[in-house]
Every structure is written in structure tokens, then in C-alpha cells.
Amino acid sequence: MTKKKGKAKGKKAAAVIARIPAQEQNGVKRPREGGVCRAVWDALDAVVSKGAQPTARDVRELVEKKGWNQNNASIELSRWRKFNGITARAT
Question: What count of Cα atoms within 13 Å lies in the side-chain half-sphere of residue 33?
Fold first, then answer.
């Protein structure tokens, strides 16, 4: 007995999920919603909305408060800064 390759009859096609392309600036894409990386970016955006520029100290405080991984949060700070075109360190 031989089996035919291909789609079995009666099965529905997989649902196609329309994704909005990630916003890209300065060669960096903004993380998609729902992940820890996006949560870090949202927290950094919140600091900016309060009129301050996020620093590594701010990220360390967020890591302790939220239980994030320190290395990941630091990397996301670097990516967020590049995305926003920030080249000088905050004082």
C-alpha cells in the first residue's frame, strides 16, 4: 500500500496571521509586542515620557523590580539607544 504525499482531504488550511512589519530605524527593528524585549523597550519609553533619558542605573532598577535578566535588559538598552539615534551617554 502506498501513501500519497500532499494535503489530506477534509483538513482546513492553516490560518494566515497578518503581521504588521516591525518598525525599523537606524538598522534596528523594534521588538514585537508580548515579549520581555518589548517590555524593556516600553519601560525605557516610559522613562523618556517622564522627561528623563534612561541610564544603565535605571535598567538595573527595573531588572530588580521586574525580575528580568540583567544581560538581556542591558542589551536591549543598547539596541533601544541605537534605534533612537542616541550616541552620547546620559549624564
Answer: 3
- Residue 22 inside a domain? The answer is no
Contact 63, 69 (CB under 8 A): yes
With respect to residue 75, please indicate whether it lies within any of the assigned structural domains.
yes
Expressed as residue numbers, the domain containing 64 is 54-85
Residue 33 in any domain: the answer is no
Question: How many domains does the structure of the chain reveal?
Answer: 1
Q: Is the pTM of this model over 0.90?
A: no
Q: Average pLDDT of each block of 10 consecutive residues along the chain (91 residues)?
A: 58 66 87 92 95 93 94 95 85 58
- Please list, in sequence order, all residues whose beta carbon lies within 8 angstroms of the beta carbon of residue 39, skipping any fewer than 6 positions away: 66, 68
Burial class (CB in 10 A: 0-12, 13-18, 19+), 58: middle
